[in-house]
Protein backbone atom coordinates (compact mmCIF):
# COMPACT_ATOMS: atom_id res chain seq x y z
CA UNK A 1 0.00 0.00 0.00
CA UNK A 2 1.22 3.51 -0.81
CA UNK A 3 0.42 6.36 1.56
CA UNK A 4 0.76 10.02 0.68
CA UNK A 5 0.79 13.28 2.58
CA UNK A 6 1.61 16.88 1.68
CA UNK A 7 4.12 19.28 3.21
CA UNK A 8 3.65 23.02 2.66
CA UNK A 9 7.15 24.36 1.96
CA UNK A 10 8.14 27.98 1.34
CA UNK A 11 8.47 26.98 -2.34
CA UNK A 12 5.14 25.21 -2.68
CA UNK A 13 3.61 21.86 -1.86
CA UNK A 14 5.84 18.82 -1.51
CA UNK A 15 4.38 15.32 -1.68
CA UNK A 16 5.64 12.45 0.45
CA UNK A 17 5.07 8.76 -0.19
CA UNK A 18 5.53 5.89 2.22
CA UNK A 19 4.98 2.17 2.29
CA UNK A 20 3.76 2.60 5.86
CA UNK A 21 7.21 2.31 7.42
CA UNK A 22 9.72 4.06 5.14
CA UNK A 23 9.78 7.26 3.11
CA UNK A 24 9.73 6.11 -0.51
CA UNK A 25 9.13 9.39 -2.33
CA UNK A 26 9.53 13.14 -1.84
CA UNK A 27 8.85 15.58 -4.68
CA UNK A 28 7.55 19.03 -5.53
CA UNK A 29 3.92 19.16 -6.62
CA UNK A 30 3.47 20.09 -10.27
CA UNK A 31 7.03 19.15 -11.23
CA UNK A 32 8.33 16.62 -13.76
CA UNK A 33 8.98 14.35 -10.78
CA UNK A 34 5.21 13.76 -10.58
CA UNK A 35 5.71 11.22 -13.37
CA UNK A 36 7.89 9.04 -11.09
CA UNK A 37 5.31 8.66 -8.34
CA UNK A 38 1.76 7.63 -7.68
CA UNK A 39 -0.51 9.38 -5.21
CA UNK A 40 -1.52 6.94 -2.51
CA UNK A 41 -4.09 6.96 0.24
CA UNK A 42 -4.04 10.10 2.42
CA UNK A 43 -2.36 9.43 5.74
CA UNK A 44 -0.73 12.14 7.84
CA UNK A 45 0.09 10.32 11.05
CA UNK A 46 2.78 7.86 10.00
CA UNK A 47 5.93 8.18 12.13
CA UNK A 48 8.09 8.47 8.99
CA UNK A 49 5.91 11.36 7.76
CA UNK A 50 6.27 13.06 11.15
CA UNK A 51 10.06 12.59 10.98
CA UNK A 52 10.15 13.93 7.43
CA UNK A 53 8.02 16.95 8.38
CA UNK A 54 10.48 17.70 11.20
CA UNK A 55 13.47 17.26 8.87
CA UNK A 56 11.92 19.64 6.33
CA UNK A 57 10.96 22.16 9.03
CA UNK A 58 14.59 22.30 10.20
CA UNK A 59 15.91 22.48 6.64
CA UNK A 60 13.56 25.24 5.46
CA UNK A 61 14.34 27.23 8.62
CA UNK A 62 17.96 27.30 7.40
CA UNK A 63 19.20 24.54 9.66
CA UNK A 64 21.05 21.34 8.95
CA UNK A 65 19.06 18.37 10.26
CA UNK A 66 21.19 15.94 12.27
CA UNK A 67 19.16 12.89 11.23
CA UNK A 68 17.75 11.30 8.10
CA UNK A 69 14.20 9.93 8.10
CA UNK A 70 13.99 6.20 7.39
CA UNK A 71 14.08 5.93 3.60
CA UNK A 72 13.78 3.01 1.22
CA UNK A 73 14.83 3.17 -2.40
CA UNK A 74 12.91 0.64 -4.43
CA UNK A 75 14.20 -1.06 -7.57
CA UNK A 76 17.53 0.72 -7.49
CA UNK A 77 20.52 -0.48 -9.49
CA UNK A 78 24.00 -0.70 -7.96
CA UNK A 79 25.11 2.21 -10.20
CA UNK A 80 22.26 4.43 -9.02
CA UNK A 81 23.03 3.48 -5.42
CA UNK A 82 26.65 4.51 -6.00
CA UNK A 83 25.51 7.90 -7.32
CA UNK A 84 23.11 8.37 -4.39
CA UNK A 85 25.88 7.50 -1.92
CA UNK A 86 28.02 10.27 -3.44
CA UNK A 87 25.12 12.76 -3.41
CA UNK A 88 24.49 12.04 0.27
CA UNK A 89 28.04 13.20 1.02
CA UNK A 90 27.69 16.61 -0.68
CA UNK A 91 27.82 19.11 2.19
CA UNK A 92 25.06 21.63 2.80
CA UNK A 93 25.79 24.79 0.82
CA UNK A 94 28.16 23.05 -1.61
CA UNK A 95 27.74 21.68 -5.12
CA UNK A 96 29.38 19.05 -7.29
CA UNK A 97 29.18 18.48 -11.04
CA UNK A 98 27.88 15.45 -12.88
CA UNK A 99 31.41 15.12 -14.27
CA UNK A 100 32.91 15.12 -10.76
CA UNK A 101 30.64 12.25 -9.76
CA UNK A 102 31.55 10.39 -12.96
CA UNK A 103 35.26 10.82 -12.20
CA UNK A 104 34.81 9.59 -8.64
CA UNK A 105 32.95 6.47 -9.79
CA UNK A 106 35.54 5.79 -12.51
CA UNK A 107 38.30 6.09 -9.91
CA UNK A 108 36.50 3.76 -7.49
CA UNK A 109 36.01 1.20 -10.24
CA UNK A 110 39.53 1.53 -11.59
CA UNK A 111 38.36 2.50 -15.06
CA UNK A 112 39.51 5.33 -17.28
CA UNK A 113 36.19 7.19 -17.49
CA UNK A 114 32.52 7.13 -16.69
CA UNK A 115 29.77 8.93 -18.57
CA UNK A 116 28.53 12.15 -16.99
CA UNK A 117 25.27 11.56 -18.90
CA UNK A 118 24.83 8.21 -17.17
CA UNK A 119 25.38 10.01 -13.87
CA UNK A 120 22.78 12.59 -14.93
CA UNK A 121 20.25 9.84 -15.60
CA UNK A 122 20.95 8.31 -12.19
CA UNK A 123 20.66 11.70 -10.46
CA UNK A 124 17.41 12.31 -12.34
CA UNK A 125 15.95 9.04 -11.11
CA UNK A 126 16.27 10.11 -7.47
CA UNK A 127 12.84 9.54 -5.87
CA UNK A 128 13.55 11.50 -2.67
CA UNK A 129 14.46 15.10 -3.43
CA UNK A 130 16.10 17.49 -0.95
CA UNK A 131 16.96 14.76 1.60
CA UNK A 132 18.97 13.02 -1.13
CA UNK A 133 20.36 16.36 -2.36
CA UNK A 134 20.22 16.04 -6.13
CA UNK A 135 19.72 19.83 -6.26
CA UNK A 136 23.41 20.15 -5.33
CA UNK A 137 24.50 18.46 -8.56
CA UNK A 138 25.17 20.94 -11.35
CA UNK A 139 26.46 20.94 -14.89
CA UNK A 140 29.99 21.82 -15.93
CA UNK A 141 30.90 25.49 -15.80
CA UNK A 142 28.33 26.10 -13.06
CA UNK A 143 25.34 25.40 -15.31
CA UNK A 144 22.15 24.91 -13.35
CA UNK A 145 20.51 22.16 -15.28
CA UNK A 146 18.64 18.93 -14.88
CA UNK A 147 16.34 19.20 -11.88
CA UNK A 148 13.09 17.24 -12.07
CA UNK A 149 11.68 19.33 -9.24
CA UNK A 150 11.81 22.40 -11.46
CA UNK A 151 14.75 24.71 -12.07
CA UNK A 152 13.11 27.46 -9.97
CA UNK A 153 13.10 25.08 -6.99
CA UNK A 154 16.74 24.09 -7.59
CA UNK A 155 17.69 27.77 -7.57
CA UNK A 156 15.61 28.41 -4.43
CA UNK A 157 17.17 25.44 -2.59
CA UNK A 158 20.71 26.51 -3.53
CA UNK A 159 19.96 30.07 -2.35
CA UNK A 160 18.45 28.75 0.89
CA UNK A 161 21.72 26.89 1.53
CA UNK A 162 23.67 30.14 1.13
CA UNK A 163 25.23 29.51 -2.27
CA UNK A 164 26.47 32.56 -4.14
CA UNK A 165 24.27 32.47 -7.21
CA UNK A 166 26.86 34.53 -9.12
CA UNK A 167 28.87 31.30 -9.32
CA UNK A 168 26.21 29.66 -11.47
CA UNK A 169 24.95 30.00 -15.00
CA UNK A 170 21.19 30.24 -14.99
CA UNK A 171 19.33 28.54 -17.79
CA UNK A 172 17.83 30.73 -20.48
CA UNK A 173 14.54 30.04 -22.15
CA UNK A 174 14.60 29.61 -25.89
TrEMBL record:
Keyword Methyltransferase among record annotations: yes
- Domain (Methylated-DNA-[protein]-cysteine S-methyltransferase DNA binding) spans 78-162
List the catalysed reactions.
a 6-O-methyl-2'-deoxyguanosine in DNA + L-cysteinyl-[protein] = S-methyl-L-cysteinyl-[protein] + a 2'-deoxyguanosine in DNA; a 4-O-methyl-thymidine in DNA + L-cysteinyl-[protein] = a thymidine in DNA + S-methyl-L-cysteinyl-[protein]
Q: InterPro entries under this entry?
A: MethylDNA_cys_MeTrfase_AS, MethylDNA_cys_MeTrfase_DNA-bd, MethylDNA_cys_MeTrfase_DNAb, MethylG_MeTrfase_N, MGMT_N_sf, WH-like_DNA-bd_sf
Which UniProt keywords are present, listed alphabetically? Answer: DNA damage, DNA repair, Methyltransferase, Transferase
Q: Which residues form the Methylguanine DNA methyltransferase ribonuclease-like domain?
A: 2-62
- Report what the protein is called: Methylated-DNA--[protein]-cysteine S-methyltransferase
Amino acid sequence: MVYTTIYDSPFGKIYMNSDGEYLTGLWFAGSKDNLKHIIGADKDDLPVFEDTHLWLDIYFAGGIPDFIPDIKLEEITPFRQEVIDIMMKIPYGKTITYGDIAKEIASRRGIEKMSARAVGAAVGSNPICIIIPCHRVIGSGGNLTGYGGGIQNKIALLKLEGNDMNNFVLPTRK
